[in-house]
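pasting for the record
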Amino acid sequence: MRSFIRHLALIVFAGLLLAGCSAVRLGYANADNLARWWIDQYLDLAPEQDVLVRERLGRYLAWHRKTQLPDYVNLMRNGQKLATAQTTAADALSLGDELIRRGRVLAEQATPDIADLLPTLTPAQIERMAARQMEKNADYAKEARLAEGEAGQRKARYKRLLERAEYWFGDFSKEQEAALRRMVDAQDPGSQFWYDEKLRRQRDWLSLVRQMQRERPPRERVIQMLRDYAARFDLPTEPVRLAQAIALRRASAELAVAIHTLMTPAQREHARSKLDDLIHDFTELSRETTPG
């Protein structure tokens, strides 16, 4: 999947960034348990599968600590420059591309281990995974207020963006909140489009996993199938939908720049300070010896 691969691979990176600086060390120390728990929720691992997952996660996290955390320090330093300077949509798009590139590195590193796990899945585990995806999709649709049309989707997007912006920049004034709401209302929310893309990736993934379960291809073929899936993960291949996806990404980058323009010097310093805390924690974590 790359949905499955990405969730496994990005649980470390995204989890650290979103948990908050004070939780970075605790989250990283428990990343293996969190990832195993997440996988088990989807697959209900058999004992021998759990042994495999535990062993491979240990190796994966050791690699991540040694090679990726120092790279994240550089990413955070670039983020500090953007937080305190004038930015453009091109800057925001470039940062987004950097995050996608790092996600691909994580996914590629995990691919051989995923290729060893997939042949062990039973039909019941695959159907459990499909059912779990449906549950999560329902939760997402409710949170994004998809059933309420664009008006509801804009309200959900505004709430989500405000929460994220206030995490990084601190509390918004009433005037800033009103300006953000106007910006969100002026754009296509894109929620239904990205939800449909999510469903596309899931359908492709389940089709791939079921094919593997039926045909039992050799390991080298499984790895290539996973890489082919990963190559078409981020954007649709159909020209009209690809153009729409690119336009929505551009609009999101422009919105990010507009939000940045609203920020006061104190709010930009707040973001710089949060990134500084992350830089410190990533640096210290990268120097520690992997437990076990």
